[in-house]
Target: Redoxin domain-containing protein
Amino acid sequence: MKLKVGDKAPDFEAEDDEGKRVKLSDFQGKS
Model:
């Protein structure tokens, strides 16, 4: 999948360093 500048990143899920599942969308609007 190719993204261009300004494209919305697709949501995905991964494990953090403690094994907890997190999604990209969990961080939407946070900086």
